[in-house]
Design a protein that fits this description.
The protein has about 160 residues and is α+β, with helices and mostly antiparallel strands. Helices cover about 45% and strands about 10% of the residues. It contains six helices and four strands, in the order αααααββββα. A four-stranded antiparallel beta sheet has the order 1-2-3-4, covered by helices on one side. The two termini are about 25 Å apart.
């Protein structure tokens, strides 16, 4: 991830839709880079923490691209989203067409389990394994909590 556009696009997970659309409407590369930097510094006021958090966020974006890319970039997939916001799961359980990521040692604690169902449209024209996150109300609460940890800079001190 080197270009300003490559740095700006994954911020969709941390920004409101309108704010992200406004960011992506910036045509000039230098202005876009300045806007990305401004976004991070306005949210994370400590420059040292900001550097650490930026590095962590974009390392996760790159890792998501390596792990989950198929017909689209890995960061754009549901597994990429969860990986970027929450990090690597403690364990992964695969049963048939379901992959469950556990973020707690207690696998029965559904609050910290994320279930992905494999898309069943695999064919010679669509040869990809594509997983869809099974979302519920609790997921959205945790996602919002996690985004707040990223934006406040607390992500480096506190996990899920």
């Amino acid at each position: 991830l080197k270009s300003p556009e490559e740095l700006a696009r994954p911020l969709v997970y941390l920004m409101g839709r309108g704010d992200h659309e406004q960011l992506m409407s910036i045509d000039d590369s230098d202005s876009l880079k300045a806007a990305v930097d401004r976004f991070w510094l306005l949210n994370i006021r400590n420059k040292s923490d900001a550097k650490t958090i930026l590095r962590l966020y974009y390392e996760r974006v790159e890792e998501a691209n390596k792990r989950f890319s198929n017909f689209k970039e890995g960061w754009k997939t549901d597994r990429g989203l969860v990986f970027i916001l929450f990090g690597s799961p403690i364990s992964v359980q695969e049963i048939h067409d379901t992959e469950t990521w556990h973020y707690s040692y207690n696998r029965n604690n559904s609050r910290y389990n994320y279930e992905f169902k494999k898309n069943r449209f695999k064919s010679e024209f669509y040869p990809f394994d594509y997983y869809v996150l099974q979302r519920d109300a609790e997921y959205y609460n945790l996602q919002k909590q996690q985004v707040n940890l990223w934006l406040s800079g607390q992500i480096i001190y506190r996990k899920l």
